[in-house]
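User: Hi! Is it possible to get a structure for several chains at once, not just one? Here's what I have:
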Amino acid sequence: MTASPSPREQTDGRRAKGERRRRAIIDATLRVVERDGIAGVSHRNIAREAGVPPASVVYYFDSIDGVLVATLLESCETMIDELRALADEVVDSERWVSTTAELLSRMVREHRGRTLAEYELYLLAARRPALRPAARRWIEVAAGHVHETGSRDPGAVQALLATIDGLLMQALIAEEPPGPEVFRPALAALVHERA
Amino acid sequence: MTASPSPREQTDGRRAKGERRRRAIIDATLRVVERDGIAGVSHRNIAREAGVPPASVVYYFDSIDGVLVATLLESCETMIDELRALADEVVDSERWVSTTAELLSRMVREHRGRTLAEYELYLLAARRPALRPAARRWIEVAAGHVHETGSRDPGAVQALLATIDGLLMQALIAEEPPGPEVFRPALAALVHERA
DNA sequence: CAGAAAATGGAACATGTGTTCAATTTCTTG
DNA sequence: CAAGAAATTGAACACATGTTCCATTTTCTG
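Assistant: Yes, the chains can be modeled jointly so their relative placement is included. Here is the combined structure:
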């Protein structure tokens, strides 16, 4: 992807600055995907967003796919933290259905661009094998998270994850992002509860 | 989108030929999306695929979004028939779980490109409002189909639909398209059956 | 301080893009 | 058959794209 990290990269100011710039490019790419979708990802676009010349993007990543892979991985890591924080904040209700409905609603309302970007990158992985490991890591992380608070049955965990993906996708094409009450019936049916 | 259909369009050979060409462009667009994804959709690309000059595409559709809307709608209609045929063919088993697992497996194995294209167009609707009605029509059709053979609870129907979407998406980023046995546990958990 | 390594950024390249335009062909109608 | 409507198409437009090249600047090492 870039120059192989030498054993003494923490003291070299040149490499440190380079690493910072590399991160700036990744962050800029995520912002571009959020705003304009994957269609908006180009060398010049993300370079402008990051405030660097286009040649710098080529210097740090040898292809546009390289940038996307790095971005998807990065995004996965930071999203975990955000999700965890959101999950903590939302646990004023004690029922799982209400809590999750609230969480999903927030994802498509307060973080619509981010959520959308996530699924676009996700789907892109279906076409570009290079992105697949990053996308699957996403599933693993989410599965682990569900496993903590949910059923032990692997099939149930898989179904739950799939349902959430599907619900979010449907929510993303709604004319305006739905509130928790839209998600509740489906979630309730999923765990055999009353809404 | 095109010239408004005059009351006597069935006798005018010029308009008839035009309509045929319009359909050829839509079909070509679907093939392009299947092969190269939405990223591959351009005037020149679909023109080459359809065997017409690029100017013809502009003549029949006033924008690239117009082509996509028409394609999504078309694709929706033809997919209904194919799905129904597939559903009929697959009813040798009598259990819903096995039948559906088999059907999903076929969608990602024998019709991978088509399924993928469907979801790409679907997700694109999240960014381009013009595509949303077509995308929502998809949900309605699928919901109707599920309603015929499934539960009466609206929440359950919604959950089922969402789960299938999620399962298909996960299947699409697998290294190779999974067989029915991969879908069965999740589907079983969904309807509280043993796999 | 001199030399080397890394990073930077401006310019240029060939190619692809959406779209417009004017001329031409195809077909219908009076 | 002649007039006109509809369809067709090649050429051209201005611009965006991925990528390469090379001169310059920054930073570290001996």
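Chain A has nine helices and no strands. Chain A touches chain B at residues 37-39, 116, 119-120, 122-127, 129, 132, 135-136, 139, 153-156, 158-159, 161-167, 169-170, 172-173, 175, 184-190, 192, 195 (CB under 8 Å).

User: Great, thank you!
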